[in-house]
């Protein structure tokens, strides 16, 4: 693989990468073939990267620890997840607010500086993370009642599905859309495809948008979201990828490859699959 100064896509240099985790590096935390080697080759070539994920079931440090356990060489600082970005948004836009959080998994570590209240307390903000067994009728109805009483709605992401070993699973985007319609509110979305999330990752890399490429399996959240922030987007045919979704998308990726294993060939000047 070429050095970090020689990589390019469509004739333009690539100085850094943003890479999704679920469906790109792993499925149900099992490495996708070639993913471990690809990340190692990027590091060896001196290419800086951030693993940019909407995953809300694990904290930033636990995500890194889980990836290391799966065989990847990853540092905590190289992971940027939706809960940590959400905490930054809440501290900046709702300082001191009482936040009621509905999310699968424990992400309290990433919500530093945020006041989280219990279900029997009044709340200023309803925060939705990733969907799971916690999204019972009672819980979603409680969120609805808080919203109709004036609480703001903040979503860590609005993904409709995510990929697990058994296939596609319903994610919280469906609940976000339902609550918006039922309560007559509009959610502030912090994770991908929010431009603010990509901007935070670019700031960590200390690179301009035009120097960076995003690699993901979600045409809307990963690829089109990145392009909306000025970052080129590469779509992989793993994870939640479906040809019909790509065909019906409102935009086109800068490249489509079979998997993360083909990324280094693409950036070394090889021809991507289309």
SSE blueprint and pairings:
Layout: E1 8-9, E2 12-13, E3 16-19, E4 26-27, E5 30-31, H1 35-44, E6 49-53, H2 60-69, E7 79-81, H3 82-93, E8 98-102, E9 115-116, E10 125-128, H4 137-148, E11 152-155, E12 161-164, E13 167-170, H5 173-183, E14 188-189, H6 195-205, E15 212-216, H7 219-228, E16 232-236, H8 243-247, E17 255-257, H9 263-267
Parallel strand pairs: 3-6, 3-15, 6-7, 8-9, 8-10, 10-11, 11-14, 15-16, 16-17
Antiparallel strand pairs: 1-2, 4-5, 12-13
Helix pairs in contact: 4-5
* Percent of residues in beta strands: 15-25%
Which structural class do the helices and strands define? alpha/beta
Count up the helices: 9
The radius of gyration computed from the alpha-carbon positions, rounded to a whole number of angstroms, is: 18 Å
Poorly predicted regions are none
> How many strand segments?
17
Largest sheet: 6 strands, parallel
Mean pLDDT: 92
In what order do the strands lie side by side in the largest sheet? 7-6-3-15-16-17
Order of helices and strands: EEEEEHEHEHEEEHEEEHEHEHEHEH
Give the helix proportion (percent range). Answer: 25-40%
First-last Cα distance: 22 Å
Overall 3D shape: globular
